[in-house]
Design goal:
alpha+beta
Length: 336
């Protein structure tokens, strides 16, 4: 009992130190807003900083959206409507030629499809406020960067295809499907793909370098509901998703399906990746075990769960990750 009490005291001190580090960044104005959620067993540490006046402040998650999208696709795998070994062309017939017939569903979920992260015409599409259907059409035309399964190269186009498969099978808009089959069963009442009826002013604004009508804060981007980066949520809601995969039940997926998503699905390559989830090779936290799964987001977000210590971590900020990674995301994660 004494050892456990001492361990809790040490952990609490580390969490307090993490909170002071965040507060220093928000007090200086370097970071506009942030929320932190840490759970170790029944012990919860929750704080809000800067313009986030309460812990349930809503942020644009960016790529933390990806495991949510993949979870929705895995609902169809459980229903046997989709198999990981199915060719993508089975569901998207126009995705053909140039080696595309060799792209399997599992390649989409593990960043091994050969599709690019962003389309060459990405900026042009955004500038003209293109709908997601135009991104789909452009993805059909874009050349593969490498033969499927031969490399792991991070790509958002594969996640777009995952959502497109779900939409074509169910003939339902993807934001509605993921809300019905993932967010609601898990009690993620403050999470939506797209704004979900909110006003942008009800969310934390990203610290964009240049303001325009297609940036992260624009009505166009916030309402696009991109399946690779368009979810809005709170730190505690993201923690609910982590907790589900830490202790899976049949609420969303078969427990064995959920467990399969947080183990390595890459063979013959030096890198590791789950189904939609990043697996820790040092990028999630220097002190995390290799069993840790999670994801980061370019808007300045990071989440992970370490099964070894039953420890969940969520940090949402408004500072783009390329600027906040070294000053905030990584140091705070390491302290946690």
């Amino acid at each position: 009992m004494l050892m456990r009490s001492l361990a809790l005291m040490v952990r609490q001190r580390k969490w307090d130190e993490a909170a002071r580090l965040i507060a220093g960044q928000t007090d200086s104005g370097e970071v506009a807003a942030a929320t932190l959620f840490i759970r170790s067993g029944s012990q919860v540490f929750e704080r809000a900083f800067g313009k986030a006046t309460h812990s349930d402040a809503v942020f644009l998650l960016a790529s933390i959206t990806k495991p949510m999208t993949v979870t929705a696709l895995m609902v169809l795998v459980d229903r046997k409507q989709v198999s990981l070994s199915d060719p993508v062309q089975r569901f998207i017939p126009e995705f053909r030629d140039g080696g595309r017939d060799r792209v399997l569903v599992r390649h989409l979920l593990t960043h091994t499809s050969g599709l690019p992260d962003m389309l060459p015409e990405n900026e042009t599409l955004r500038k003209r406020h293109a709908p997601l259907s135009d991104f789909v059409a452009a993805t059909c035309r874009t050349p593969l960067l490498f033969p499927p399964g031969t490399q792991l190269r991070y790509q958002s186009r594969g996640i777009l295809w995952a959502s497109e498969i779900v939409s074509r099978i169910n003939r339902k808009k993807f934001p509605a499907f993921v809300a019905e089959h993932v967010f609601r069963p898990l009690g993620m009442s403050k999470t939506s793909l797209g704004l979900g009826g909110r006003a942008i002013s009800d969310t934390m604004l990203c610290q964009v370098a240049e303001t325009n009508d297609w940036d992260w804060n624009s009505p166009y981007w916030r309402n696009l509901a991109s399946p690779w980066g368009g979810a809005h949520s709170t730190a505690s809601d993201v923690a609910l998703l982590l907790q589900y995969f830490a202790s899976p039940s049949s609420l969303v997926l078969k427990p064995e399906t959920a467990r399969s998503m947080i183990v390595n699905h890459i063979t013959g390559l030096k890198k590791r990746w789950g189904l939609g989830w990043m697996l820790n090779d040092g990028q999630l936290g220097a002190n995390c075990s290799r069993a840790t799964f999670g994801h980061s987001g370019s808007t300045g977000t990071l989440c992970w769960h370490d099964p070894q210590d039953d420890l969940s971590f969520v940090l949402l900020t408004t500072k783009p990750a390329e600027q906040s990674r070294n000053i905030l995301l990584t140091p705070v994660s390491n302290l946690a």
